[in-house]
Amino acid sequence: MWQTFWALFGAIVTVAACYATGAWILDWAGAPLNRPERFPLSFVLGASVLHLAVFAILSLKIAYRPVVIGLMAVPIAWAIWKGSWRIKGDPVAPLSVALKIFYSVIFSVFTVVYFFHAWAPESSPDGSAYHLGLVARYLRAHGFEQVITNMYANLSAGVEMLFLPAFAIGKHSAAALLHYGFLVALAMAMFAYGRRIGKPWVGAAGALLVYVSPVVGLDGSIAYNDCGVAAIAFAVFYFLEIWDECRQPRLLIPIGLLAGYCYAAKYTAVAMTVYAFLFVAWKSRKIRQCAMVAACAAVMIVPWMAKDWIYAANPVAPFFNKLFRNPYRRIVAEQEYADFLSRYTVENKWTLPLEVTVRGEKTTGLLGPMFLLAPLSLLALRFREGRRLLLPGLLLFLPFFTNVGTRFLIPCLPFFSLAIALAVPWTPVLAALVLIHAVLSWPSIIPRYSAHYAWHLDRVLWKQAIRKIPQDRYLAQNFGPYGIARLIDDNVPKGARVLAVNGVADAYTTHEVLVGFQAALNDDLADILDAGWDESRQPTRRLTFKFPVKTVRRLRLLETGVGAPLEEFKVTELRYFYQGAELPRSESWKLRAWPNPWDVQLAFDNSPATRWRSWEVAAPGMYLDTDFGKFEFVDEVQVDTSFDYANIRLQVEAMDPPGRWTKIAADPKTDLLKPPVDIRRWAGRDLHERGIDYILMNDTDWGADDMREDPASWGFQEIARGYGARIYKVVKW
Amino acid sequence: MPEPYAPPLQRQPFEDARPHRISRIVAMADADAVSHFVQDIAPGEPAPWKWTNQKPTVKVVPRTNLRLRYVIDFSVPEVTFKVTGPVTLTFFVNDHALDTIRYTASGEYHYEKDVPPEWIEPLKDTLLSASIDKVWVSPTDGARLGFILTRIGLTQ
Fold it and tell me: Can you tell me the ipTM of this complex?
């Protein structure tokens, strides 16, 4: 029962602190807000400032629970003392009874579903993995730490910074409830916007179109951040509209802060930062005012860039790794990931509108069939407000093509929803549209038209929310990754790292789980593991270059071909010979590679289970370079490699005394190689040597059956199994 | 660009090297067990054991056909044995009868036997089954229960 209380308390305290901070700033700025605007806009603005305060205590490594709670208590006390706590503002025209009933009934009914879902134990895939996994990790470490094993640690996390105080008090559900707070604030702000422009039905309809949308309800009631991003983006727009009316210079401070907070909350929302800057530039034509917005935005953006620069050698990690080359993320992995996100499993992009509105399986979630009417929003172009709404809506819509997950439409949804509502001039028709949308979005109705495995809410989790069904039991029975997280904590010694093929619920384990695709280091480890069972990755191809004896000090293997998409240049071992005898590798040798200079030793370690990979698509100019430190006789070069790539052309070059590279051999002879019968042991030993002694395999993972049938051949011992997974320990190396 | 690296510690071959042993065993508790079912095994979530019908069959894909043994762990439960009496099980590999054994008491049993290499084609689906001569038929809904299967497969 206490779990229930603390979850709610943690969320309420964080929401209150955000509101208090924002309300005080708005009072200071003299923002001419209407009464209904006070809470939602103060909350979102306060969130932006508080997120930075949390960022600061994490940077200072003082994120102890009393500090975090104090950070929440101070603004609340300050706002009460200064009188900012009160809901105040200019009065607005009263609502009609019909509108009051219409809005409050639909809003309340869906609120019951969402609120209990947010309050119930958190079991979302990404929420329990990285959104909260990293929050939990930072809390354990009392601050930021360099995380080179999880690319998600490099994403800006403006909303997650606020999950941290909520989580510190009320754990996982508190964070989900806080995110739900953003959704409520968004709906309130949209409704208030309608009242500000004198069209309350438009505001109500727009707010409800968003609020009851299935993907919004689901996303907003778990520890994700999309609804938070939508609320922030809409707040930027809202403040710009108010500023445009009153031209109060101090308002540019909240505008700049919120515009920067868009980037801090999600990279793709940077479109709104640009919009804010251009809007102020266009309207004011004053450098000073533009500089104010830019400076305030920078206050929010720079800390995130600096953090990534310091920890990941890339200010916009985990993207643009080709521009900011670093040892933490493979470029080809970034391309592969981007390629997947741009299509998911949608083969025909013309089906996307149907997928994101009605089917909802391939793009994980649906907006609701009513959004097939989105083109109707163009009719709003005849109104000034419509034009103002559609431009930022369009800017926020564009990043969708880089990630076609339905939830990536949430940030632009408020703008299009209000525009749709604006485009329909008849209130009864508008009310009917909203009502139909609400019916079609009701959890029990969705399966009647959506795809079978569409992701959506399915029931009211009130027993789970008040923990009448204990959290542990509910999660163990309904959320496999939770069981696996428990399996890890129960069987792996504290502090030991675990290598896994697929993600786990990091927020429920204290162990660091290295998931193959999430970082270059993990990827290298997974490649070693895969070399144990996957013949296509084993050194089964030997390329031999023979040439008249040369006296050389420096040789390189140069790639001159162009790889197919996602095809890397890979070398398991590179050996040099003279008269049939291999040149023993000496400590005086200097090894270089381009690209991926960091892994060059993998091609010179005498292990068939490790290999150097270019980390980007094979291209002319890539090389492995050996400086022998003295002159050596060489008449043969052998390259042991695999068959999982084809489009390469290699040549051997020697450096002449003036320092020029000269081709000495090309067109190698290809022979088939048989890898060692115990290559699995080699793989197990290489993992052990890199500090990996525990491997988690789901029964359905590639390679799981190989490991399961003879763990001893890997030097492994199965130490635990359950929830469709097994944990192996490296016991012989 | 980082500084050039020296060659790392050279890995040495193992002295006690041995090849990997094939073991394509489908345990009913495995998360992916259902994907191996061909017929006469109750579907649904993985469980430590499952009821079968008359001729439960699974498919596996062995990488080799050398030195493989057919393995099965099963139970003849008392509840059905009381009705059926002694039962005879015939074990099959790709529809070749490997053996036939009569069980005169209820209980848990383990059986394994070498499989002739010519019965199996490497890297192709191999069907493994065990057929019981008498099944218990539910008088209420007609459900047919053969025996309880824990695991079945090939090992090397």
Answer: 0.83
